[in-house]
User: Fold this.
Amino acid sequence: MTLTGRGGRRTFGLLTAGALLLAGCDSAQPDRVAPPLGQPSPAPSRTFAPGAAGVGDAYFPSYGNGGYDVAHYTVQVRYDPAKDRLSGTTTVRATATTNLSAFNLDLAGLTVRSVTVDGVQAGYARTGNELVITPAIGLTSGNGFLAEIRYDGEPAALKNEELGEGGWLHTADGAIALGQPESASTWFPVNDHPSDKATYDIEITVPAGLAAVSNGVPKGRSTRGGWATWKWSEGSPMASYLSTVVIGRFRLTTGEHKGRPVFSAVSSSLSKGAADRSVRRTVEVADYLESVFGPYPFDAYGGVVVADDRIRYALETQTRPVYSAGFFRQGDNTGVVAHELAHQWFGNSVALEKWQDIWLNEGLATYAEWLWAEHTGRSTVQRTFDLQYATASDRVWRVPPGRPGVRNLFGESVYQRGGMAVHALRVAVGDAAFFAILRTWAEEKKDSNGTTADFIAVAERVSGKKLGKLFDAWLYGTERPAEPKPF
Assistant:
């Protein structure tokens, strides 16, 4: 993220005959339906209990849910901008990780119309932004299940007093679904925490004449009865906050690079110019970063530029970052492109396990900006570090990037001191070991999650050096560390 101002095989369980005796649905209360009648008792040797309503993240305890692991989402939505009305069906393919009598999904605002689990009607209720689903029979640990949720309503963004709003935003010609640390739950039911990554198929139906851009590989579009359906597929595991939909009028450019599709969109309300030129260099920037970090981790390239005053940042939405038009008001800006593309390795392919470790995303992406500036002859990395080290505000040194707190999750320390911590590591271990650390981290953690402790372990193993004191000073101290020196 950039601010303008600063797997495995799944086994699906079988249903018993008793599960087919269903209770009726009370249409007057669409967000609360009792479990079906005739529920058979679980086997005496098993105890079933509801899954947790959060994953236990210290910064956001209510985010995500426990008791299951999602493998794939199929999201089908229809949106009418004139009425600001969305209807959808989402199918969640998951595996129970404990014996579940009920489980939660995150869903904000929208009205649930029906829920099935493995094709059988399930009970459901709403508690704030939690959708509590009670299947007809308990879900046994290790078994897969399919949950299908039908819903509709007027989608709206989620507001966070400290971090601003994220999620579905109605625009003059469509909508934008975007935000960090949460946004997905405003348009589909989801386990909304980066620790549970999944693959996606996304299908968006909008009035003909509008584009509907999402993540991954474009799978075609069709038009019928004045409506256009756009299909997208992300075959690599993706954290839910990295999903996006951007609907409206855009200049679209398509192509192919290294056998992968390239799909970019720039708002038609912007004059042709810097935004188009900067996004057009996406594959050039990606190729340079590939030479540093290792193979590009996904099956598609691209970018989206939106013109909306509420969005004053860029976000590394997987395969297709979204940029505020504000980044290009002063001319071409490939630095922000380098930052968001670096996240495709660090933040997307290797995702966070917990939000406290956000510096792993932003520090490495900031450092990628410095590397790109050196590659293009604008400044050396050392000069950039020296400037940051000399001019950083007291707040940068008071706030430890490895433990920033929720209020400073996207603050200056996480980005700039995080980038300086990466350079301190480089100085300490030398260039050969440093770039080997980055490539090893990207390769070994591809399509999974990582923590600061994991990163330090890789750095020490690859370099053969003890680095605890260095990381303690740069990530957790509350004073300016001494200038880095080689070990």
Summary: Residues 412-429 form the longest helix (18 residues).
